[in-house]
Amino acid sequence: MAASPLSFPLVVPAPVGAVLARLPAYPGSLLLVTALNLALARHLPADVGQVLLHKKMRVQVRDARVAFDFAWTGQRFAPHAPLVPPQVADVTLSATVHDFLLLAQRQQDPDTLFFSRRLSMEGDTELGLVVKNALDAIELPVLDPRQWAQRLAPRQVLGHLRRRLDPTPRNGG
Q1: Rounded Cα–Cα distance for residues 126 and 115 (Å)
Q2: What is the SS3 assignment for 57?
Q3: Average pLDDT estimate for 77-91
Q4: Residue 91 forms beta bridges with which residues?
Q5: Which has the closest alpha carbon to 165: 73, 71, 30?
Q6: Concatenated DSSP letters for 104-149?
Q7: DSSP 3-state assignment of 73?
Q8: Is 24 exposed, middle or buried (0-12, 13-18, 19+ CB in 10 A)?
Q9: Residue 54, pLDDT score
C-alpha cells in the first residue's frame, strides 16, 4: 500500500530555508496569488470579499523562511511588494510547509493547528477569523491539490502569467 504524500512530516531543511530567505519575495507572492485566484477567487462570498477588500495579508512559511504578501482587489488576489517595517500586514498567518499542505488538503483542521501552536495568526484577529471561516465554509474540493494540480502545472501557470503580463494576442503561439 502506497503512503500518502503527507504521511510523514515534510520539513524544509535549514540550509534550503537560508537560501530561500535570500530570494526576492515578489515572484513567490505572484505564484501564490495565481494559485489563490485559480482555486478560490470565484468561490469567495461577496461579504467576505468586502471585509478583505484592500487588506494587506501575509502568508509566512516558517521553515522555508519566506513570506508572501498580497491583497484582495475586489475581483482577485493581487501580490504586493514585501512589507518593510514599520509597515505591517493587516493579518499574518504563519505555519510550516507541512502544516500549510495539510490545511490545503483538508487533512488538518485550522483550529487544531492553532491550539497546538503550529499555526499562528498575528494582526487583525477578526480578519483572520473571517479568512478561516470563509475557507471552512467552501464545501467544494477546491483546496484539494488533486482537483487543481493540472491547472497549476508549470506550463499552465506560465501561460496564465504570460496572458496576464502581455494581454496582446500572439500569432502562432
Answers
A1: 17
A2: strand
A3: 89
A4: 57, 123
A5: 30
A6: HTTSS-HHHHHHTTSSEEEE-HHHHHHHHHHHHH--SGGG-HHHHT
A7: coil
A8: exposed
A9: 94
Helix axes 25-39, 154-165, angle to 10 degrees: 100
| Helix locations, the chain, DSSP H | 14-21, 25-39, 46-52, 97-104, 110-115, 125-137, 145-148, 154-165
Residue tagged 483542521 (cell numbers): 109
pLDDT (tens digit, 9 = 90+) per residue, 31-58?
Answer: 889 988 887 888 888 999 999 999 999 9
Question: The dihedral of CA 126, 129, 133, 135: what is its sign?
Answer: positive
Can you say whether residue 96 is alpha, beta or left, with left for phi > 0 and alpha for psi between -120 and 50 degrees? beta
Position 4 confidence tier, pLDDT thresholds 50, 70, 90: very low
pLDDT tens by residue, 137-159: 765 554 555 655 566 667 777 77
